[in-house]
Design goal:
By secondary structure, this protein is mainly α. Among the domains are: 146 residues, no CATH class; 58 residues, no CATH class. This is Palmitoyltransferase.
Length: 351
Amino acid sequence: MAPSHTLKCCKRALNWVPVLFINMVVAWSYYAYVVELCVYTIPNNAERISYLVLFHIFLAMFIWSYWKTIWSKPSSPSVAFALPRAERELYEKEQRAEVQQEILKKAARNLPVYTRTAGGAVRYCDFCQVIKPDRCHHCSTCEMCVLKMDHHCPWVNNCVGFSNYKFFILFLAYATLYCVVICVTVVQYFIKFWTKQLPDTHAKFHILFLFFVAALFFISIVSLYSYHMWLVGKNRTTIEAFRAPFFATGPDKNGFSLGFKRNVAEVFGEQAKYWIFPVFSSPGDGHSFVTRLVHIDPEQANSVLQQNGKILMDGETNLCMVADDVPHAEGNSKEKTDGGQIVVVTVNSEP
């Protein structure tokens, strides 16, 4: 028991090494830019002040979004998705897989869960002992089920999912802009040192190395940022990009896609004034998502959420499903369309 606990502690400590490395690089870049470039190298006061103001604005946004990504605890499924005690005991005692599935299907009928495994089985986590909500996956590193899990990122030592995906996108965006600001403002002094137009001083190494490091980080980060912005436009997670979610009608990578504008709002929220700030503004609660493949009427949606203990913030709304011409195999909901147009079902938190 003791060796196992020691190994876990060592593993957790090692997981912070990439985060420590990033913070050390940022700390050095701050010293190289502020002290070696602005204080010792730039002769013009107006240029120095303008560079410092611009640099600190993007550094502050970068650090803010980075630490929000790190310290935002991943959201896990609510107790409503756990098997009731009697059903859990039956499930654990039962050895036949088909009977276990019948127990899970019975429990899942009272939940807004519409995705299945590739074999059509109800998605259940034996570690957390919960029926997995749509887009939820178990992270072996965090040892928990994470709502709308995208991936586990070693550079933030945290799972990127429903609670912090917006912060992660902003972290990549501001890290890219931070590198751009450094490269654009340092390049003229990089050239002067490289061509020996400036005398060799202790600042030379820092200026040359700062430009190379910023350029290399820019190339790596901008590619990752572009990929995730493409995922946002498609309303997919990284997991869904590699393995399409399974619905009653089969696998569909575009099952959660609602059009570019709505897809962006699913991550950043409806109010554009909050988009550039690392404050949580994503809609919903992470347990259920709008999908074009399942339809459900408002009364049934409200009943499902109330039965399963969904607790929403005051005044918050939860977009559950979108009416479509593809019926759900297990549902008995009525089709809600108006002139062939898709109708969004909105469930208010007000009783």
